[in-house]
Amino acid sequence: MYNKTKLSNGIRIITENIPYVNSISIGLWVESGSRYENKDNNGVSHFIEHILFKGTKNRTARDIAEQIDSVGGQMNAFTSKECTCFYIKILDNHIDLAIDILQDMLFNSTFDENEIDKEKNVIIEEINMYEDAPEEIVHDLLSNTVFKKHPLSLPILGNKESINNLTKESMVDYFKKYYIPENIVISIVGNIDEENILKTLEKNFGVWKSNKKKLANKFVSPTIKRNIIYKDKDTEQLHLCLGLEGLKQSSKNIYSLLVLNNIFGGSMSSRLFQKVREDLGIAYSIYSYPSTYKDTGIFTIYAGLNPKHLIDLSKIIINEIKEIKANIFSEEEIFKSKEQLKGNFILGLENTSSRMSSYGKSELLNNKIETPNEIINSINKVNKNSIREVIDNIFNIDNINIAYVGRLNNKNIESDLINIYKK
After folding, report:
1. What is this structure's pTM?
2. Domain identity same for 126 and 235
3. Starting at the edge strand that comes first in sequence, how are the strands of the sheet with 3-6 ordered?
4. 90 within domain boundaries
5. Where is the Peptidase M16 C-terminal domain (predicted)?
6. Domain interval for residue 184
7. Tens digits of per-residue pLDDT, 289-333?
8. 3-state DSSP helix/strand/coil % of the chain, to nearest 5
């Protein structure tokens, strides 16, 4: 069972002692991501994630890496649209080292201009690598068409122009604006002495004072309407993404959405996978997944296929949606999906990193944490009525968004595609 407390400066702390493991996972979560940016500084959240590893007043970049490697630990970070996380997994007797490195990176990073210039090249190469992967590009294109000029449409990596335009001053200004105690959650799971851990965290992070208040989330929710976007690229496969309006993170029907997704396209036993790949063999990769944000969400369907199968696939997808809207699912399908969801969740509980991540992200973005028992109970409560409510909310073909990467040499194919999704 987790415990929740605050340091004297307001940093939220989530701890859970698991005495039968030998590891500890610690994550420092920051409410900073690409939706807090604009077109001029797009990519700054991700850039700061990189630059905090590039040296402090006390450690070089090599020192940071070597000190974690030398004790068999793992350290990394990631940036999303709504948060950034720095995390370490380490043996329990080295937790003080992990905490010291994280606080050093947070408080003493130098933002050295030479390192910034070098890292610009690294990130631009990361963008280049990303642009060589059409399966990745198509998901960003979908965000672009679903959210249009809304901040959620901005790519996490930024673009070459916005990265080149970033300066040390603009990065430090952004850092000071969002890296404040009120915007931070520290989540620690593993074999810990919770009382001593809190004292150590207070000593290392409690001295950090802020004159600012947590920034009000004055989000304007996007309006999602039908749109189509494409990137012409000479590829063997066509990469297709369809986007429907989903649910926000705090929706009461979030577990009904997950159950629905398992049945529809979220697993190898799903209707789409079995129909498209196993029965017809017209696509190697096909799946669906929900993305949830504070105030909105997307339900995405992806397929990678030969362009000649595009019309047939599109008809199958539309027919499956219509079938679900007309006849919903059987009790057996719902039961199996719920068991699959619970099984995946319970297996994840055996991993300290998964528990740390679940607690940290939930507290940061939702200001609440569900216990494992509460989550299992929520899954058990999913029924035909709650799934019907989700179906009525998200499977609105009139607002479907289409994104694809590849080449359609026959212009009539694209016209036919649009007509299919108008039905």
Report:
1. 0.93
2. no
3. 3-6, 12-17, 184-190, 23-30, 84-91, 74-79
4. yes
5. 165-341
6. 3-205
7. 999 999 999 999 999 999 889 989 999 999 999 999 999 899 999
8. 50, 20, 30
